[in-house]
Amino acid sequence: MKLQISYSKYNSFKQCPLKYAHQYIFKTKVQEEKSYPLILGQLTHLFIQLYNDEVYTKKQIREIKDNLEVLYELIDLQYPAFYNNNYQINHIDIRKSTDEIISFIKENEVVFFHALKLFNIYQERFFPKINQSSNFLSETTFNNIIKINDELTCCFYGSIDLLFYTLNNNDMQYLYISDFKTGKKLYDNYFEQLFFYYYNLVNYNFEIGTKIKNNTDNIDVLKMISTKLTNDKVHLLLFNLREGEHKKILLTESYNQYEKYMNDFFNIVENDIYVLHKDKEFLSFLDIYEKYNNKYKLVNIENCNKNQLGFICNYCKFKDECSYRLIERE
Between 290 and 34, whose confidence is greater? Predict the structure, then answer.
């Protein structure tokens, strides 16, 4: 079997196996409402990407509010898809609901200016510090093919907000793997996403990777990272655009956490996510509930005390379609 796994997919399962099953196994259809935080995050990251890639200048970004249709047409990321026994590229427009997003922004104009403010924080407080002496790549996409066992091959994919690094005689002096957040707080568990990115950077499958990627600059950087980088040169950086704050750790200081996280990651992919997909024709939500109810503190909705309701369920888009709920974990 061949599976495509991103950090968000994996994290969805960790939050709640039923949430994962709704979205990726049974593909439950729900009407999604465009939320302020969702549009804010998408728009801010889009500004940063276009600025770093020199598609737009800061002045032009300020002028594009009335031309959002043109803006979104520029965004087209490529991820691989498994097709029979071969790998092929699928073009996926990450702004699938362009018209809805544009309508949302026109009706809630403040979201545009809020996103512009966060972009200014990034441009003024963060970018000048790395631009003077560092090399950087914005929105570095990776598609990494990993054979888990004889039955399972995975494509781990994602997009890293920013990589920046310094070189000395073609030797890498340090590397920062950075992710931008638009929420109010930076949580330590956000570093898990950067662990996932780091694993794929240093374990990149070039033989397959070069066949499915067209950004050769990225491939060159990946090769440099995987062959010349030591852990003591790697920093993981979270940057809160809303507050202009950051959290930074040196990988060597958190290597035990990294190893534990990746061990748990592979264990869940192989023994849980893979099994769900393999047996999906014979599974029901009841089966999944019975398998995971103790570990995840799942309860039947008929027995659910609203005062015990877990945080994840409050914001889950499938909560009205789901017969089960998470309760607060100890």
Answer: 290
Q: Could you tell me if 270 and 146 are in contact, meaning their C-beta atoms sit under 8 angstroms apart?
A: no
Q: How many CB atoms lie within 10 A of CB 128?
A: 9
Instruction: At 55, list the tokens.
Output: 């598609």
Task: Please report which confidence band the pLDDT of residue 214 belongs to, taking 50, 70 and 90 as the band edges.
Answer: very low
> Which of the 8 DSSP states describes residue 33?
P
The encoded tokens of residue 229 equal 């980088």
- C-alpha to C-alpha distance for 268 and 203, rounded to whole angstroms: 19
Q: Which pTM was predicted?
A: 0.90
Q: pLDDT above 90 covers what percent of the chain?
A: 37
- Tell me how crowded residue 170 is: count the other CB atoms within 10 A of its CB: 7
Instruction: Please report, for residues 52, 66, 216, 244, 258, the alpha-carbon distance to residue 46 in angstroms, rounded to integers and kept in the order given.
Output: 10, 16, 22, 18, 29
* Helix 36-52 / helix 98-107 crossing angle, nearest 10 deg: 110
